[in-house]
Design goal:
Strand content of chain B: under 5%
Shape of chain B: elongated
Number of helices of chain A: 7
Strand content of chain A: under 5%
Number of helices of chain B: 10
Radius of gyration of chain B: 18 Å
Number of strands of chain A: 0
CATH architecture of chain A: Up-down Bundle
CATH class of chain A: Mainly Alpha
Distance between the termini of chain B: 24 Å
CATH topology of chain A: Four Helix Bundle (Hemerythrin (Met), subunit A)
Structural class of chain A: mainly alpha
Order of helices and strands of chain A: HHHHHHH
Largest sheet of chain A: none
Largest interface: A-B, 28 and 31 residues
Shape of chain A: globular
Oligomer: heterodimer
Radius of gyration of chain A: 22 Å
Helix content of chain A: over 70%
Distance between the termini of chain A: 19 Å
Structural class of chain B: mainly alpha
Helix content of chain B: over 70%
């Protein structure tokens, strides 16, 4: 830690000129995200409430699927998030490994459970949607199957990282697994797709959906941004915990813990 | 130099396998017992067994390969010879390729050789058995390469075996699909060439990318 951190007063994150690496410092990251968290939760709740209201009360009933289609407003954003977060996780893990940026590795580790949660949510809501629409909870459709394998990739990453006690080795090994997984995801997707066309006739195509009403699109986008805000909030909270745990021997964490309530941040 | 080291590592591993014959035969024993369990579970109806055969043989080969691969670096890591090799200037890449090759020779080749027997047990015809053996011939090196990566990643960890399987199994899905798919294609009187070509492409892809990843994992684990 830099000497300026030794004092019990924490530095203002914006006092220095901003650079790309400004918030790679755990101290500044901790201060910045602490200030951001309430806003992120507010955005998440507001957009989520608006998205759910529009999705469940304003958007028109679907001509063929009735009201059961409305789970799309949770299902599709969750599926988007599941894939995006895997790429984010692999990207931050790679940055952390390549540049020895500890905070990037901590961020990657914090993203994994949220990504797995969204993957599971996409699968679960998909099953709930499939039952009334297709008449079955699960089909071995290319998309469903790849999403399931994505969940297993998250599990593999989390299990490996948790099994290694040395944080440095855990970060690097996790980065390697995340990158290998990211390289393999397209191969897995196309092989599953091919396998699926060989084994069974086409199931209901989700890509050929009729043009979407604009209120539906609005609701879906609102939900997507709500999930984004949620992901940021949860990932930041988890990263803050990891930061405190790993930096527990430093003075600034000591100062943070012994700070009297009501004192300035 | 590096070819000499490659040969030396493979020869040493083969000699070790020859000295511990029962250890070396365990994967094929596991394969035989595991594949024989399926008829007890699903019934002895010949058509059903014939349909299940490619998948059962492939999944059992996959598990036999991954269960045996976890000790690939274990012995060398425990007695320090892995560190010595890395410190002594042997490229981690060479070690990774040599270890995967020796694992394939010890485990993969016997699995391929045993395939016809299991094809007969499950009632496959000659063409399907030949395709199954060919698909395993192309597929088992992929399993050895991916398994080597998993073994390097989980080197010296608690419950490394389960961890390796959890990490590596999802990555083997394409090989499983293509390998078992080739046999299914033959059985529905289609040409298996598309499957086998893609499996070959996957083997080349794995042979190019798995060794550097394994080398990186070895450096991470021994740092």
């Amino acid at each position: 830690m830099s000497p300026s951190v030794r004092s019990s007063r924490l530095p203002n994150p914006l006092s220095n000129p901003l650079r790309l690496t400004t918030f790679a410092s755990p101290v500044r990251f901790h201060a910045l995200t602490g200030a951001l968290l309430p806003w992120l939760w507010a955005v998440c709740l507001l957009l989520g409430a608006a998205g759910l209201y529009i999705g469940f009360f304003v958007a028109p009933t679907d001509a063929t699927q009735g009201d059961s289609y409305r789970i799309i407003f949770i299902h599709v954003p969750a599926a988007w998030m599941s894939m995006l977060l895997y790429l984010m996780m692999a990207g931050w893990a790679a940055i952390g490994w390549a540049f020895n940026a500890r905070l990037a590795s901590m961020l990657a580790r914090a993203i994994a459970p949220t990504g797995a949660m969204f993957t599971f949510m996409a699968l679960w809501t998909g099953a709930l949607w499939g039952k009334p629409t297709w008449g079955t909870w699960w089909v071995w459709d290319a998309r469903l199957t790849s999403e399931l394998i994505l969940l297993f990739l998250y599990f593999g990453y989390m299990a490996l990282v948790a099994a290694i006690d040395d944080p440095r080795r855990a970060d690097q090994a996790g980065a390697l697994v995340a990158i290998v997984g990211a390289v393999n995801v397209p191969i897995i997707y196309f092989s599953v797709k091919w396998w699926n066309t060989l084994h069974q006739g086409a199931t209901i195509s989700m890509t050929a959906a009729p043009k979407m009403a604009s209120t539906m699109l609005t609701a879906m986008l609102l939900m997507t941004f709500a999930f984004w805000a949620y992901a940021f909030a949860v990932v930041f909270t988890r990263t803050r915990a990891i930061v405190l745990e790993r930096e527990r021997h430093t003075d600034w964490v000591g100062a943070l813990v012994t700070r009297r309530p009501g004192e300035q941040r | 130099m590096s070819r000499g080291v490659f040969g030396a590592i493979v020869a040493r591993d083969l000699r070790l396998a020859a000295r511990r014959r029962v250890d070396a035969l365990l994967p094929i024993g596991f394969f035989a017992v595991a594949a024989s369990m399926f008829p007890f579970g699903v019934g002895s109806e010949p058509n059903l067994l014939r349909q299940l055969a490619p998948g059962v043989v492939w999944v059992c080969a996959l598990l036999a390969s991954l269960l045996s691969v976890q000790q690939l670096y274990g012995g060398d890591f425990a007695d320090g010879s892995l560190d010595q090799m890395l410190v002594g200037g042997t490229s981690a890449w060479t070690i990774a390729v040599a270890k995967a090759a020796s694992h394939w020779l010890v485990t993969g080749v016997p699995l391929v050789a045993a395939t016809p027997l299991f094809g007969l047990l499950f009632g496959l015809d000659a063409a399907a058995i030949a395709t199954l053996a060919l698909s395993l011939l192309l597929g088992t090196p992929i399993l050895a390469l991916l398994g080597g990566l998993g073994a390097a990643l989980t080197l010296g960890l608690r419950s490394a075996g389960m961890l390796l399987i959890l990490v590596v199994l999802p990555l083997t899905v394409p090989a499983l699909i293509l390998g078992a798919g080739a046999v299914v294609a033959v059985e529905s009187s289609l040409s298996p060439r598309a499957h086998l070509s893609l499996l070959g492409a996957l083997l080349i892809f794995s042979a190019l990318l798995a060794p550097p990843a394994t080398a990186a994992a070895l450096r991470i684990a021994t740092e």
